[in-house]
Structure formats: C-alpha cells, structure tokens
Fold this sequence. Notes:
- The protein is 20% helix and 22% strand.
- The protein is an alpha/beta fold.
- It has an 8-stranded mixed β-sheet with strand order 1-2-7-8-11-12-13-15. It has a two-stranded antiparallel sheet with strand order 3-6. A two-stranded antiparallel sheet has the order 4-5.
- Helix 2 (106-118) links the parallel strand 7 (89-93) and strand 8.
- The model has no long low-confidence stretch (mean pLDDT 90).
Amino acid sequence: MSAKSKIQWTQRPGTVGRTWNPCRGCSLVSEGCTNCYAMYAAHRMENNQTLKGAYSGLTRMTEHGPVWTGGIRLVHEALEQPYHWKEPSTVFVNSMSDLFHEGVPFHFISRVLEVITKTPQHTYLVLTKRAQRMREALGPRGTGFYAAEGPVPCPQPNLWLGVSVENAQAAEMRVGWLQRSPAAVRFLSVEPLLEAVDLDAHLLEDINWVIVGGESGPRSRPCNVEWIRSVVAQAQAASIPIFVKQLGAKVEVVYRSPEDNAWDHPVFPPKDRKGGDPDEWPEDLRIRE
C-alpha cells in the first residue's frame, strides 16, 4: 500500500511525500514501540473490507490495547509501485513495518533495495530499530548487496538510513551500527523522546541529520521541552541539521529560574493535539532544517 504522506519530514521541496509499504506487520523490541502508531493503525484497518484482509492477524487485542503479533506479510505486488510515480518523491519506506525485521528475508530486502537503485528520481528514507540487521543486510561500507542482476554497490545516492533513538539505551545500541552502514545520508529519529539523551561526539560522528519529537497518540508519555532543547543544542554544536517534528501530546516544562514562572510562549499547553504546530512553540525550537 502506497499513499501520499503528511509526515513533516517527507515534505521536501520539489518532491511528493509518500509512504511505501512492501512489508506489513512488526513486533515490539524496545520502549519506543509501546505506543506504536502503526500498530494502532493496523488494528483499525484489520476489519476494513476494502483492504481485503491486508492487516488481518498482524495485531491482537490486550487489556492495554492492540499489540503486534510478530507476523510479517511480504507485499510482492507493492514492489512495482515506485516505477509508476511520475513526480520525484521523498519516500518513507515501511511506515507500517520495519524493513530489517528478522521476519523479512534478506532476499526480499535485496529486492526492495533493487527497486531503490532503479528509481534514482526518488529519495528513500528507511528507519529501523534493528540496526544490526540493517548492517548485515547492506554489508560494510562500499561492499553493497546482491540483487538479481548481481552485486550492487553502496551507498546509493538516493538511500537515506536512520535509526530510532527514544532513550539513552537505544542510542548506545543502534547508532554505532548506523555509522557502519553504507548510506548517502544517515539520520537519527530521536522520537518518541522519552528521556534526556546525551548524543556525545562519537554518537554524532558521520550523522547527517537529526529529527526530534515527543510522543503523540493513545497513551502518550510525557516529553519535557528541555529534553528537546538539549537535542537541538547538541545537533547544532556538531553542525548537523536539526528538524523539530513535534513537542508531543503531553508536553512538560521545567522552569529555568524562579523568575521564569511561565513558558516562553503564550500558548501552553499547545492546542495542537500532537504539539505539532510550530507557531505554538518557543521560538528557539521552531527549526525544521
């Protein structure tokens, strides 16, 4: 299933924002998965008759809400979709799964990557929580991967690779594997930001872009404005472009001094349910590079 995307970081000048899902289904691997938007969306779509069972069996209901079952569905017919897009697109790959999930065979990953190499007019952003398997699938820098027609060198200029960083543990587990993976652009999606994260110099080496945001959706967990400020400051100190996506549905504030007894912007809490309207943010956080 492919769709036009409203995700803010797919809205690049001169391109159409899209999602592309050659896989469906996932499983929980860390704290960032707890309130996964795709998990809730898959559950809602399970009984949608027009989708003909596309998401049936991929989630199960628990007392805390829907949860991935761990089942993976390969959507072979979706592999042809990028060839038919007439306009250059910025494509979020597998918004409803994880391309490097252990249930996705390496040969299928190679087919997805082959499509990417054959459609250089599009830019593909692949985001994963399974950074080690990403590195295994793509090989070390410069070695490439194997497609039907033989070896394909990496990095491909239209392939951007990213890892999710929701807390300090995730940063330590994933960023190193990303740094060792071949990509034209390497990015961090520091969302949903669940605690203060220290991205020290070695974690920002060879990183080209940082996205940061609080959690939104059902059962959102709090995100402190100062945690976001810290990520912004760390990226700026390393001269890395920073994109503040949203403050999240539960914005917390720590006042900086006894005299500073109000947020530094008149709209608090934000009216936007995701904290996604930059006009409601402190001015220093209105950054989307």
